[in-house]
Specification:
Elements: E1 7-10, H1 13-18, E2 21-26, H2 37-52, E3 56-61, H3 66-77, E4 81-87, H4 94-101, E5 104-109, H5 111-120, E6 125-127, E7 130-133, H6 140-145, H7 147-152, E8 159-164, H8 168-176, E9 182-187, H9 192-200, E10 204-206, H10 219-232, H11 241-253, E11 262-267
Parallel strand pairs: 2-11, 3-4, 3-7, 4-5, 8-9, 8-11, 9-10
Antiparallel strand pairs: 1-2, 6-7
Helix pairs in contact: 2-3, 3-4, 10-11
C-alpha cells in the first residue's frame, strides 16, 4: 500500500478570492483497488482475521460496491479467500468481474433479505472459519482504522471535509480528530436518520448535496467532476467525492469559511464508481 498518501494543494480562483488555503488528501493513491477509506477501514479487520486464523472474508455490498472490490483485492493480497453477498438479482458488470478476478465468490441476495442482513450485521462475526464483515466495514474496527489518517497529516487544518455513505469514516474521523480541526460530513445519501445520528454524536452534517440520493448522477454532477479533473489532473468519483467537491465550492461561495483558514478535502477513492455509468463518464 502507498502510505502515507500525499497532501496536495488545490488551486481555484474562488479559493484565491476568499483567501483560503485548500488541500486534498490523496487517499485515492493508496492502492488501485483498495483505495481511500476502504483500506483504512479494512486494515484493522485484516489484522483481526490474521490473528483469528480464519480462511475466508465475507461481506455485503451492491452491484457496484467499492467495498466488495477492496475486500476481494485485500483478501487475495493477504492469502484469504473471499465471498461477496450482492444486493439484488444476479447481474454481471465490470466491477463484479474484477471481484471475481481476485477470487471472490459472488452470491446474490434479494433486496428484502439484504436489508434485514444489513440491519443486523453491525459487528464482526466468526462463523465456521469465516470472518463476516458488515457492509462498508461499518463496525468498531472499521471506524478505528480511520485514525491513521490524522497521524499522517503534515500540517494542521481548520476544517476537514469527508463524504458520508454508511457514516463509518465520518464517525472514525470525528472520534480521533484534533481539537483544532472541525469535521464537515457531506451526505452522499438521503438518510435523515443517519444524518441525525451523526449530529447527535457532535458531527457537523450537510444534507443538501446528495443530489437525489446514493449513486444518483446527473449532468451537473458529471460537469463538476470533469471540470475538476481538467484543471487538477485528479479524478473524482461521481458517487461520493464529486458531490463533496460541489459542496465545498458552494460553502466557499457562501462564505462559510473565514479568510486564511486551511481546509482539507479527503479523497476517499472509490473511482470504480465510474463503472456504474460508463456511457456518462
Amino acid at each position: 500500500m502507498n502510505l502515507p498518501s500525499p497532501e496536495q494543494e488545490l488551486h481555484h480562483p474562488l479559493f484565491e478570492e476568499k483567501g483560503l488555503s485548500v488541500w486534498i488528501k490523496r487517499d485515492d493513491l493508496i492502492h488501485p483497488f483498495v483505495s481511500g477509506n476502504k483500506w483504512r477501514k479494512l486494515e484493522p479487520i485484516i489484522e483481526v482475521a490474521k490473528q483469528a486464523g480464519v480462511h475466508t472474508l465475507v461481506s455485503f455490498g451492491g452491484a457496484y460496491s467499492n467495498h466488495l472490490l477492496a475486500l476481494a483485492a485485500s483478501a487475495a493480497s493477504f492469502g484469504f479467500k473471499s465471498r461477496g453477498i450482492v444486493r439484488g438479482d444476479r447481474v454481471s458488470n465490470p466491477l463484479l468481474r474484477l471481484c471475481s478476478q481476485f477470487g471472490m465468490e459472488l452470491e446474490f441476495m434479494t433486496r428484502e433479505a439484504f436489508r434485514e442482513a444489513r440491519a443486523t450485521e453491525t459487528h464482526l462475526k466468526f462463523i465456521d472459519g469465516e470472518l463476516w464483515i458488515p457492509e462498508g466495514a461499518n463496525c468498531l474496527e472499521g471506524r478505528a482504522g480511520m485514525a491513521s489518517l490524522w497521524k499522517e497529516l503534515k500540517q494542521s487544518y481548520t476544517h476537514v471535509l469527508d463524504s458520508v455513505g454508511s457514516g463509518t469514516s465520518a464517525r472514525g474521523l470525528h472520534a480521533n480528530k484534533p481539537d483544532a480541526s472541525e469535521l464537515l460530513a457531506i451526505m452522499a445519501v438521503k438518510d435523515a436518520r443517519l444524518a441525525e445520528q451523526l449530529r447527535e454524536e457532535g458531527i457537523q452534517v450537510f444534507t443538501d448535496y446528495a443530489r437525489g440520493g446514493f449513486a444518483k448522477m446527473d449532468a451537473g454532477l458529471f460537469d463538476a467532476c470533469r471540470a475538476f479533473t481538467s484543471h487538477s489532473g485528479i479524478l473524482l468519483d461521481p458517487v461520493y467525492t464529486g458531490k463533496q467537491w460541489m459542496a465545498l465550492l458552494d460553502l466557499v461561495q457562501n462564505d462559510f469559511f473565514s479568510p486564511e483558514q486551511r481546509l482539507l478535502f479527503i479523497h476517499s477513492g472509490g473511482l470504480a464508481g465510474w463503472m456504474s455509468n460508463p456511457e456518462r463518464a
